[in-house]
What we know:
The chain is mainly β. It has one helix spanning 189-193, and strands at 3-5, 10-12, 23-32, 37-38, 44-45, 52-58, 64-68, 80-82, 96-101, 111-117, 127-136, 144-149, 158-167, 170-180.
Amino acid sequence: MGLSLQKGQSLSLTKSDGGSLSRVRMGLGWDSAAPVKRGFFGKAKAADVDLDASAIFFDAQGAVLDTVWFNQLASKDGSTKHTGDNLTGAGDGDDETILVDLPRVSPAVAQIVFVISSYSGQTFDTVENAFCRLVDDSTPALPEVARYQLTDTGTHTAMIMAKVSREGAGWSFTAIGERANGRSVRDLLVPAARFL
């Protein structure tokens, strides 16, 4: 279990030996808070919640350089890949994952902001147990480095979840957890820029 962060807290992405993390995995997960429905044969089923994880790349002046989301699964510099869209949020653990090879990130990128949004317009009062977690993807056991558990619910349709920022020769991770509204990453470019 990684370090549990509160909203606004940051963590330097260094290993216990003093080296910098190289490949990281941002996992985002959520569950449905909607009432369980009974199907035709009386089987209980929670309502599906379709959220989308995305990454936005900013330069040092706050200009958007690139995005990674369900319509563009890899960054232009080849450093970052989205592993695919999850339409239901069903199951335990990460529902969507974005992999980042930090040394391959373009030198022009100063910060990567991770967001989640609902393309279908579902609101966060239908979501529970939302989290984002950063995993060391360069270590075989995939140890969790940091976790941010979202406790905020409401009628918003998106969240600015966290960011990874250049910090000297390395990187740092910051939990943001701020409300926003939007159906896709395109709607969240301006709201995300407020947290650079």
